[in-house]
Amino acid sequence: MAQLDTLLKKMVSSGASDLHLSCGEPVRMRINGELKRVSKSPLDQTSMYEMMKELCRPDQWTKFREVHELDFAYGIQDVSRFRCNYLQQVRGPGAVFRVIPDEIIPLEKLGVPKVLASLANLKSGLVLVTGPTGSGKSTTLAGLINLINRRHAKHIITIEDPIEFVHRSEKSFIYQREVGADALSFSSALHESLLQDPDVILVGEMRDLETISQAVTAAEMGVLVFGTLHTNSAAKTMDRIIDTFPAAQKEQIRGMLSESLKAIVAQQLLKRSDKPGRVAAHEVLLHGPGLGNIIREGSTPKMLSYIESGKGRGMCMMDESLIALVKNNIVTAEDAFLKATDKLRFEKWLHELNIPFSG
Given CB 3.0 to 4.6 Å as the disulfide criterion, which of 99, 101, 226, 299 pairs with 202? Predict the structure, then answer.
Protein backbone atom coordinates (compact mmCIF):
# COMPACT_ATOMS: atom_id res chain seq x y z
CA MET A 1 0.00 0.00 0.00
CA ALA A 2 1.34 3.43 -0.93
CA GLN A 3 2.10 5.77 1.99
CA LEU A 4 -0.33 8.37 0.67
CA ASP A 5 -3.21 5.88 0.65
CA THR A 6 -3.75 6.51 4.37
CA LEU A 7 -4.19 10.24 3.82
CA LEU A 8 -6.40 9.69 0.78
CA LYS A 9 -8.66 7.33 2.73
CA LYS A 10 -8.86 9.88 5.56
CA MET A 11 -9.78 12.50 2.99
CA VAL A 12 -12.73 10.39 1.81
CA SER A 13 -13.89 9.49 5.32
CA SER A 14 -13.74 13.19 6.33
CA GLY A 15 -15.92 14.23 3.43
CA ALA A 16 -13.15 16.42 2.02
CA SER A 17 -13.08 17.39 -1.64
CA ASP A 18 -9.35 18.14 -1.86
CA LEU A 19 -6.10 17.21 -0.12
CA HIS A 20 -3.17 19.68 -0.20
CA LEU A 21 0.43 18.68 0.45
CA SER A 22 3.23 21.23 0.39
CA CYS A 23 6.86 20.96 1.41
CA GLY A 24 7.41 22.81 4.69
CA GLU A 25 3.69 22.98 5.50
CA PRO A 26 1.27 20.77 7.45
CA VAL A 27 -1.33 18.67 5.59
CA ARG A 28 -4.52 20.52 4.69
CA MET A 29 -7.92 19.35 3.42
CA ARG A 30 -10.80 21.30 1.89
CA ILE A 31 -13.98 20.35 3.73
CA ASN A 32 -17.29 21.96 2.70
CA GLY A 33 -15.33 24.58 0.79
CA GLU A 34 -13.04 25.56 3.68
CA LEU A 35 -9.32 24.73 3.81
CA LYS A 36 -8.40 23.19 7.18
CA ARG A 37 -5.17 21.91 8.74
CA VAL A 38 -5.35 18.23 9.61
CA SER A 39 -1.81 17.81 10.98
CA LYS A 40 0.66 19.86 12.99
CA SER A 41 4.03 18.73 11.62
CA PRO A 42 5.29 20.20 8.33
CA LEU A 43 6.17 17.85 5.50
CA ASP A 44 9.84 17.55 4.52
CA GLN A 45 11.16 17.33 0.98
CA THR A 46 12.54 13.78 1.18
CA SER A 47 9.32 12.22 2.44
CA MET A 48 7.27 14.28 -0.05
CA TYR A 49 9.25 12.93 -3.00
CA GLU A 50 9.01 9.36 -1.68
CA MET A 51 5.23 9.53 -1.22
CA MET A 52 4.60 11.22 -4.57
CA LYS A 53 6.78 8.79 -6.53
CA GLU A 54 4.85 5.76 -5.20
CA LEU A 55 1.57 6.91 -6.76
CA CYS A 56 2.54 7.32 -10.41
CA ARG A 57 4.12 5.29 -13.19
CA PRO A 58 7.90 5.53 -13.83
CA ASP A 59 7.33 7.47 -17.06
CA GLN A 60 5.04 9.90 -15.26
CA TRP A 61 7.62 10.44 -12.53
CA THR A 62 10.30 11.08 -15.13
CA LYS A 63 8.04 13.64 -16.78
CA PHE A 64 7.40 15.40 -13.45
CA ARG A 65 11.11 15.61 -12.65
CA GLU A 66 11.73 17.07 -16.11
CA VAL A 67 8.90 19.60 -16.46
CA HIS A 68 7.93 20.03 -12.75
CA GLU A 69 4.21 19.45 -13.43
CA LEU A 70 2.07 16.32 -13.66
CA ASP A 71 -1.65 15.58 -13.85
CA PHE A 72 -2.97 12.01 -13.56
CA ALA A 73 -5.65 9.83 -11.98
CA TYR A 74 -5.17 7.32 -9.17
CA GLY A 75 -7.58 4.83 -7.63
CA ILE A 76 -7.90 2.91 -4.37
CA GLN A 77 -10.17 -0.11 -4.70
CA ASP A 78 -13.42 0.15 -2.74
CA VAL A 79 -12.52 3.72 -1.69
CA SER A 80 -12.46 6.19 -4.60
CA ARG A 81 -10.56 7.56 -7.57
CA PHE A 82 -8.54 10.75 -7.31
CA ARG A 83 -7.36 13.43 -9.69
CA CYS A 84 -3.72 14.09 -8.77
CA ASN A 85 -1.73 17.20 -9.61
CA TYR A 86 1.99 17.44 -8.83
CA LEU A 87 3.90 20.72 -8.94
CA GLN A 88 7.24 22.21 -8.02
CA GLN A 89 7.27 25.44 -6.06
CA VAL A 90 9.77 27.66 -4.28
CA ARG A 91 9.94 25.49 -1.11
CA GLY A 92 10.04 22.18 -2.97
CA PRO A 93 7.41 19.72 -4.25
CA GLY A 94 3.67 20.08 -3.78
CA ALA A 95 0.62 17.97 -4.59
CA VAL A 96 -3.15 18.42 -4.75
CA PHE A 97 -5.61 15.51 -4.81
CA ARG A 98 -9.31 15.75 -5.64
CA VAL A 99 -11.88 13.04 -4.94
CA ILE A 100 -13.63 11.58 -7.98
CA PRO A 101 -16.77 9.72 -6.86
CA ASP A 102 -16.65 6.02 -7.74
CA GLU A 103 -20.25 6.07 -8.89
CA ILE A 104 -21.44 8.53 -11.52
CA ILE A 105 -24.27 10.56 -10.02
CA PRO A 106 -27.28 10.50 -12.39
CA LEU A 107 -28.07 13.92 -13.83
CA GLU A 108 -31.51 13.92 -12.23
CA LYS A 109 -29.89 13.67 -8.77
CA LEU A 110 -27.31 16.43 -9.26
CA GLY A 111 -29.69 19.30 -8.57
CA VAL A 112 -29.06 20.87 -11.99
CA PRO A 113 -31.84 22.66 -13.92
CA LYS A 114 -34.24 20.10 -15.37
CA VAL A 115 -33.80 21.47 -18.89
CA LEU A 116 -30.25 20.07 -18.98
CA ALA A 117 -31.68 16.57 -19.50
CA SER A 118 -32.92 17.69 -22.92
CA LEU A 119 -29.30 18.21 -24.02
CA ALA A 120 -28.83 14.43 -23.97
CA ASN A 121 -31.37 14.18 -26.81
CA LEU A 122 -29.51 16.49 -29.19
CA LYS A 123 -28.31 14.93 -32.44
CA SER A 124 -25.48 17.38 -33.13
CA GLY A 125 -24.02 20.73 -32.13
CA LEU A 126 -21.76 22.22 -29.46
CA VAL A 127 -22.66 22.18 -25.75
CA LEU A 128 -20.33 23.99 -23.34
CA VAL A 129 -20.26 23.48 -19.57
CA THR A 130 -18.24 26.27 -17.99
CA GLY A 131 -17.07 27.51 -14.62
CA PRO A 132 -13.98 27.96 -12.48
CA THR A 133 -11.81 25.04 -11.37
CA GLY A 134 -13.68 22.93 -8.83
CA SER A 135 -17.15 24.09 -9.85
CA GLY A 136 -18.37 20.60 -10.77
CA LYS A 137 -18.10 20.80 -14.57
CA SER A 138 -16.77 17.22 -14.84
CA THR A 139 -19.57 15.92 -12.62
CA THR A 140 -22.25 17.60 -14.75
CA LEU A 141 -20.69 16.32 -17.98
CA ALA A 142 -20.40 12.82 -16.55
CA GLY A 143 -24.11 12.98 -15.71
CA LEU A 144 -24.94 14.02 -19.27
CA ILE A 145 -22.80 11.28 -20.83
CA ASN A 146 -24.33 8.78 -18.42
CA LEU A 147 -27.83 9.86 -19.47
CA ILE A 148 -26.99 9.43 -23.17
CA ASN A 149 -25.44 6.06 -22.37
CA ARG A 150 -28.63 4.91 -20.65
CA ARG A 151 -31.08 6.30 -23.20
CA HIS A 152 -29.51 6.08 -26.65
CA ALA A 153 -27.49 3.70 -28.83
CA LYS A 154 -24.60 6.04 -29.64
CA HIS A 155 -20.85 5.82 -30.19
CA ILE A 156 -19.34 8.08 -27.51
CA ILE A 157 -15.69 9.14 -27.40
CA THR A 158 -14.29 11.05 -24.40
CA ILE A 159 -10.93 12.84 -24.52
CA GLU A 160 -9.73 13.74 -21.03
CA ASP A 161 -6.64 14.74 -19.04
CA PRO A 162 -6.83 12.67 -16.93
CA ILE A 163 -9.83 10.33 -17.17
CA GLU A 164 -11.93 11.01 -14.10
CA PHE A 165 -15.26 9.20 -14.28
CA VAL A 166 -15.09 5.73 -15.82
CA HIS A 167 -18.16 4.89 -17.92
CA ARG A 168 -19.35 1.37 -18.70
CA SER A 169 -21.13 0.88 -22.02
CA GLU A 170 -24.89 0.37 -21.65
CA LYS A 171 -27.06 1.28 -24.64
CA SER A 172 -24.15 3.27 -26.02
CA PHE A 173 -20.63 2.15 -26.89
CA ILE A 174 -17.91 4.24 -25.19
CA TYR A 175 -14.21 4.85 -25.86
CA GLN A 176 -12.35 6.84 -23.19
CA ARG A 177 -8.95 8.27 -24.14
CA GLU A 178 -6.47 9.96 -21.82
CA VAL A 179 -4.16 12.67 -23.12
CA GLY A 180 -0.58 11.59 -22.51
CA ALA A 181 -1.37 7.90 -22.12
CA ASP A 182 -3.65 7.28 -25.13
CA ALA A 183 -3.21 10.43 -27.22
CA LEU A 184 -0.60 13.13 -27.75
CA SER A 185 -2.96 16.06 -27.21
CA PHE A 186 -6.61 17.11 -27.16
CA SER A 187 -6.38 18.46 -30.70
CA SER A 188 -4.74 15.33 -32.16
CA ALA A 189 -7.22 13.02 -30.40
CA LEU A 190 -10.12 15.18 -31.57
CA HIS A 191 -8.85 15.10 -35.15
CA GLU A 192 -8.52 11.29 -35.07
CA SER A 193 -11.91 10.83 -33.41
CA LEU A 194 -13.64 12.22 -36.49
CA LEU A 195 -12.36 9.15 -38.37
CA GLN A 196 -13.86 6.79 -35.77
CA ASP A 197 -17.58 7.16 -36.60
CA PRO A 198 -18.52 9.16 -33.47
CA ASP A 199 -22.00 10.31 -32.49
CA VAL A 200 -20.85 12.11 -29.34
CA ILE A 201 -17.44 13.53 -28.40
CA LEU A 202 -16.54 14.93 -24.98
CA VAL A 203 -13.51 17.23 -24.94
CA GLY A 204 -12.30 17.46 -21.35
CA GLU A 205 -10.81 20.92 -21.81
CA MET A 206 -10.84 23.31 -24.76
CA ARG A 207 -7.44 24.82 -24.06
CA ASP A 208 -6.23 26.28 -27.34
CA LEU A 209 -7.25 27.62 -30.74
CA GLU A 210 -6.70 24.30 -32.55
CA THR A 211 -8.83 22.31 -30.11
CA ILE A 212 -11.63 24.90 -30.10
CA SER A 213 -11.57 25.12 -33.90
CA GLN A 214 -11.77 21.35 -34.31
CA ALA A 215 -14.57 21.08 -31.73
CA VAL A 216 -16.68 23.67 -33.59
CA THR A 217 -15.93 21.96 -36.92
CA ALA A 218 -16.95 18.56 -35.51
CA ALA A 219 -20.22 20.06 -34.26
CA GLU A 220 -20.86 21.49 -37.74
CA MET A 221 -20.20 18.06 -39.27
CA GLY A 222 -23.11 16.53 -37.34
CA VAL A 223 -21.41 15.32 -34.14
CA LEU A 224 -22.71 16.24 -30.68
CA VAL A 225 -19.69 17.81 -28.95
CA PHE A 226 -19.47 18.56 -25.24
CA GLY A 227 -16.62 20.77 -23.99
CA THR A 228 -15.51 22.90 -21.04
CA LEU A 229 -14.08 26.39 -20.55
CA HIS A 230 -13.05 28.31 -17.42
CA THR A 231 -15.63 31.09 -17.73
CA ASN A 232 -18.54 31.95 -15.44
CA SER A 233 -21.22 33.26 -17.82
CA ALA A 234 -22.57 32.68 -21.31
CA ALA A 235 -21.43 36.10 -22.56
CA LYS A 236 -17.89 35.64 -21.25
CA THR A 237 -17.76 32.16 -22.75
CA MET A 238 -18.65 33.52 -26.17
CA ASP A 239 -16.06 36.30 -25.83
CA ARG A 240 -13.40 33.79 -24.75
CA ILE A 241 -13.98 31.60 -27.82
CA ILE A 242 -14.05 34.48 -30.30
CA ASP A 243 -10.98 36.16 -28.75
CA THR A 244 -8.99 32.94 -29.17
CA PHE A 245 -9.04 33.39 -32.95
CA PRO A 246 -6.98 35.85 -35.04
CA ALA A 247 -8.86 38.93 -36.26
CA ALA A 248 -9.07 37.55 -39.81
CA GLN A 249 -10.95 34.46 -38.58
CA LYS A 250 -13.34 36.04 -36.07
CA GLU A 251 -16.18 36.59 -38.55
CA GLN A 252 -15.89 33.00 -39.80
CA ILE A 253 -15.97 31.48 -36.30
CA ARG A 254 -18.97 33.65 -35.35
CA GLY A 255 -20.79 32.30 -38.38
CA MET A 256 -19.92 28.71 -37.46
CA LEU A 257 -20.98 29.17 -33.82
CA SER A 258 -24.24 30.84 -34.82
CA GLU A 259 -25.25 27.53 -36.41
CA SER A 260 -23.56 24.96 -34.18
CA LEU A 261 -23.86 26.30 -30.61
CA LYS A 262 -26.73 24.54 -28.83
CA ALA A 263 -26.20 25.47 -25.18
CA ILE A 264 -23.91 27.08 -22.62
CA VAL A 265 -24.26 26.00 -18.99
CA ALA A 266 -22.19 28.06 -16.56
CA GLN A 267 -21.98 26.92 -12.95
CA GLN A 268 -20.41 27.97 -9.66
CA LEU A 269 -20.29 26.19 -6.30
CA LEU A 270 -21.17 27.92 -3.03
CA LYS A 271 -21.01 26.85 0.60
CA ARG A 272 -24.43 25.95 1.97
CA SER A 273 -25.68 27.86 4.99
CA ASP A 274 -28.57 25.49 5.80
CA LYS A 275 -26.47 22.33 6.24
CA PRO A 276 -22.95 21.02 5.56
CA GLY A 277 -22.00 20.82 1.91
CA ARG A 278 -22.01 22.93 -1.23
CA VAL A 279 -24.61 23.81 -3.84
CA ALA A 280 -24.37 24.91 -7.47
CA ALA A 281 -25.77 28.05 -9.06
CA HIS A 282 -26.32 27.95 -12.83
CA GLU A 283 -26.68 30.12 -15.88
CA VAL A 284 -28.32 28.40 -18.84
CA LEU A 285 -28.38 29.60 -22.44
CA LEU A 286 -30.16 27.52 -25.10
CA HIS A 287 -30.19 27.86 -28.87
CA GLY A 288 -33.31 29.45 -30.25
CA PRO A 289 -34.63 32.18 -32.58
CA GLY A 290 -32.44 35.26 -32.43
CA LEU A 291 -29.34 33.72 -30.88
CA GLY A 292 -27.64 33.18 -34.23
CA ASN A 293 -27.95 36.89 -35.05
CA ILE A 294 -26.53 37.88 -31.66
CA ILE A 295 -23.50 35.65 -32.22
CA ARG A 296 -22.93 36.75 -35.82
CA GLU A 297 -23.13 40.43 -34.84
CA GLY A 298 -20.79 39.92 -31.88
CA SER A 299 -23.41 41.49 -29.60
CA THR A 300 -22.63 39.39 -26.55
CA PRO A 301 -24.16 41.98 -24.13
CA LYS A 302 -27.54 41.19 -25.76
CA MET A 303 -27.25 37.65 -24.44
CA LEU A 304 -28.57 38.73 -21.03
CA SER A 305 -31.85 39.99 -22.49
CA TYR A 306 -32.00 36.89 -24.72
CA ILE A 307 -31.67 34.64 -21.65
CA GLU A 308 -34.27 36.69 -19.74
CA SER A 309 -36.75 36.35 -22.61
CA GLY A 310 -36.20 32.57 -22.65
CA LYS A 311 -37.16 31.79 -19.05
CA GLY A 312 -40.19 29.85 -20.24
CA ARG A 313 -37.87 27.46 -22.10
CA GLY A 314 -35.70 26.85 -19.04
CA MET A 315 -33.06 29.53 -19.49
CA CYS A 316 -31.83 31.47 -16.47
CA MET A 317 -29.17 34.01 -15.55
CA MET A 318 -26.49 33.28 -12.96
CA ASP A 319 -27.62 36.14 -10.72
CA GLU A 320 -31.21 34.87 -10.74
CA SER A 321 -30.01 31.42 -9.71
CA LEU A 322 -27.99 33.01 -6.90
CA ILE A 323 -30.86 35.14 -5.62
CA ALA A 324 -33.13 32.06 -5.57
CA LEU A 325 -30.60 30.26 -3.35
CA VAL A 326 -30.54 33.26 -0.98
CA LYS A 327 -34.36 33.52 -0.87
CA ASN A 328 -34.58 29.82 0.03
CA ASN A 329 -32.00 30.26 2.81
CA ILE A 330 -29.60 27.82 1.15
CA VAL A 331 -26.65 30.25 0.90
CA THR A 332 -25.86 33.55 2.58
CA ALA A 333 -26.41 36.85 0.80
CA GLU A 334 -22.73 37.68 1.31
CA ASP A 335 -21.50 34.50 -0.42
CA ALA A 336 -23.95 34.92 -3.28
CA PHE A 337 -22.95 38.57 -3.76
CA LEU A 338 -19.31 37.55 -4.22
CA LYS A 339 -20.34 35.22 -7.09
CA ALA A 340 -22.79 37.66 -8.71
CA THR A 341 -22.12 38.95 -12.23
CA ASP A 342 -23.81 42.36 -11.84
CA LYS A 343 -23.14 43.28 -8.24
CA LEU A 344 -24.99 46.62 -8.27
CA ARG A 345 -28.16 44.98 -9.57
CA PHE A 346 -27.75 42.04 -7.17
CA GLU A 347 -27.45 44.37 -4.17
CA LYS A 348 -30.58 46.22 -5.38
CA TRP A 349 -32.47 42.89 -5.52
CA LEU A 350 -31.41 42.06 -1.97
CA HIS A 351 -32.65 45.48 -0.79
CA GLU A 352 -36.01 45.07 -2.58
CA LEU A 353 -36.46 41.63 -0.97
CA ASN A 354 -35.57 43.04 2.48
CA ILE A 355 -32.78 40.49 2.81
CA PRO A 356 -30.15 41.58 5.37
CA PHE A 357 -26.80 42.19 3.68
CA SER A 358 -23.59 43.37 5.34
CA GLY A 359 -21.86 44.32 2.07
Answer: 226
